[in-house]
């Protein structure tokens, strides 16, 4: 992996969580990879189980929900104002990276437009099929399928649980350290970045999910009151 790409990924992750407050006043939507990772966390049910009894078959509710979220996310990130706000946040993050400041700004200016272009080409139907939410058969617990608001909060609750798990944190660090070994000439710098920024990113990600009403931001819940009630119910069930 090119050191520029690796640094940019660190920067993008760091700015997304540490500067979340700056985006909290706007409609916040995940990127293509963000949706995939969250849906993956939720998709712990057995894959493609054949269901022939009444009331089973293709789960249109979940499939439709995925496609709607994807459409909104793509439209949001395709907006010029949104892209400008994201670039500003990334540039502010660059100013905190000391000796990497100028390299960081160069990476942002080069890669951000490419990422926006890639996101704009996402096809909701194809994407949801890739993450196994629009297959012919998806077995999902009734308690998680009542409505999009409850489903969203169960996804967020599962994500928080994963982020608090020391084993999950260790796996993330190990994967990044292995990636550093492939960066010729920058292995030590890369590993320093992993040890310096990854713990902070994980903590900020956890705090962000716990303190922000993500599901209301994503319009999965009709109001902040509904989102809060569903969130408390999901947290209680998780505990």
TrEMBL record:
<dbReference type="InterPro" id="IPR011001">
    <property type="entry name" value="Saposin-like"/>
</dbReference>
<dbReference type="InterPro" id="IPR008139">
    <property type="entry name" value="SaposinB_dom"/>
</dbReference>
<dbReference type="GO" id="GO:0004190">
    <property type="term" value="F:aspartic-type endopeptidase activity"/>
</dbReference>
<feature type="signal peptide">
    <location>
        <begin position="1"/>
        <end position="20"/>
    </location>
</feature>
<feature type="domain" description="Saposin B-type">
    <location>
        <begin position="145"/>
        <end position="225"/>
    </location>
</feature>
<comment type="function">
    <text>Pulmonary surfactant-associated proteins promote alveolar stability by lowering the surface tension at the air-liquid interface in the peripheral air spaces. SP-B increases the collapse pressure of palmitic acid to nearly 70 millinewtons per meter.</text>
</comment>
<dbReference type="InterPro" id="IPR008138">
    <property type="entry name" value="SapB_2"/>
</dbReference>
<keyword id="KW-0325">Glycoprotein</keyword>
<feature type="domain" description="Saposin B-type">
    <location>
        <begin position="59"/>
        <end position="138"/>
    </location>
</feature>
<dbReference type="InterPro" id="IPR008373">
    <property type="entry name" value="Saposin"/>
</dbReference>
<keyword id="KW-0677">Repeat</keyword>
<keyword id="KW-0964">Secreted</keyword>
<keyword id="KW-0064">Aspartyl protease</keyword>
<dbReference type="GO" id="GO:0005576">
    <property type="term" value="C:extracellular region"/>
</dbReference>
<dbReference type="Pfam" id="PF03489">
    <property type="entry name" value="SapB_2"/>
</dbReference>
<dbReference type="InterPro" id="IPR051428">
    <property type="entry name" value="Sphingo_Act-Surfact_Prot"/>
</dbReference>
<dbReference type="InterPro" id="IPR007856">
    <property type="entry name" value="SapB_1"/>
</dbReference>
<dbReference type="Pfam" id="PF05184">
    <property type="entry name" value="SapB_1"/>
</dbReference>
<keyword id="KW-0378">Hydrolase</keyword>
<keyword id="KW-0732">Signal</keyword>
<keyword id="KW-0865">Zymogen</keyword>
<dbReference type="GO" id="GO:0006508">
    <property type="term" value="P:proteolysis"/>
</dbReference>
<keyword id="KW-0645">Protease</keyword>
<keyword id="KW-1015">Disulfide bond</keyword>
<protein>
    <recommendedName>
        <fullName>Pulmonary surfactant-associated protein B</fullName>
    </recommendedName>
</protein>
